[in-house]
Amino acid sequence: MEKQTFNIEIEASPEQVWDILLGEQTYPKWTAVFAEGSQVETDWKEGSKALFLDGKGSGMVAVIEKNIPNKYLSIKHLGEIRDGKEDTESEAVKSWSGALENYTLQPVNGKTQLTIDMDVTEEFKDYMADKWPKALLKVKELAENQNQSTG
What is the pTM for the complete model shown? Predict the structure, then answer.
């Protein structure tokens, strides 16, 4: 596995960006870039299980490794879900099980620098390089539009 990093500067506070990333209403909007109908089942607390679902019974099973509100979130991927069943044991899953997906939010001159760094296999390198910049633009759009409507 290798690490990929993506970042974007957003004209909103870290708190606002955090709310967009994890919000029940906004999470499906920015993650639709990866899979239409995306949803997550978790309470986002450290040690909690997280199910990242595509709305069709497939997705990823993970655990929240670290959560420092408005600053840092680390998700450890454990396996996948196919047809509603969790798989953390197959050889296909073991090649990337334990991969981390980290979100870092840093205030910079009244804006927020959002950085995503993640472990990725060769198989998904191009996919992530294509999808993450689009997802980050959606987060930026949601956060800045929320900023305009409340500010």
Answer: 0.93
